[in-house]
Amino acid sequence: MSLVIRPEAERDRQAVRGVNRAAFGTTAEADLVDALREGGQVAVSLVAESNGRLVGHILFSGLLIVADPATVDAVSLAPMAVLPSHQRQGIGCQLVEAGLRACRERGDRIVLVLGHPEFYRRFGFSAPLAEPLASPFGGGEAWMALELEPGALHGIAGRVEYPPPFAALG
């Protein structure tokens, strides 16, 4: 399988919708991607292409950690989707790795995710690191943070404010 990870292009939008619908079994995540694009809130959006077919997608959007005395910029990893026929082939891992590299290159310091702990821990995401950050979507082991710059979360506690399109998922 020949796999190419590249930035999402305008021509990919319908295929990205299809990947998110197929991966999640609903239009909620596809609608979220569209709304984040329309709101100008996309930080990084990458696609995975196999033999000319779009088979995966990952999106990072800006968010705020409202802490005392100031707010801290961070990014959210959501959603990440791979067509069911192409899952468990390492595509999701390649998307996450490429996405985190792109975030580092942009100068992002903190990434937050609400996802499968056993999957995201392999990239360095940590539930204990996210404990001081109140998520509007719940917490526990699935609520995780990653410091792209070591120490970026040191001493930071507060609540996380996602861009408005995320409210539809709550």
Care to describe what's here?
- The chain is an alpha+beta fold.
- The chain has one domain: Gcn5-related N-acetyltransferase (GNAT) (Aminopeptidase), CATH 3.40.630.
- Helices cover 28% and strands 34% of the residues.
- It contains five helices and eight strands; from the N terminus they run E-H-H-E-E-E-H-E-H-H-E-E-E.
- The chain has helices at 13-24, 28-38, 91-106, 117-120, 127-130; strands at 3-7, 42-50, 53-67, 71-82, 110-114, 133-134, 143-147, 158-161.
- Strands 1, 2, 3, 4, 5, 6, 7 and 8 form an eight-stranded mixed β-sheet that branches.
- Helix 1 (13-24) runs antiparallel to helix 2 (28-38).
- The protein is globular, with a radius of gyration of 15 Å.
- The model has no long low-confidence stretch (mean pLDDT 94).
Summarize the structure.
By secondary structure, this protein is α+β, with helices and mostly antiparallel strands. The chain contains 5 helices and 8 strands, in the order βααβββαβααβββ.
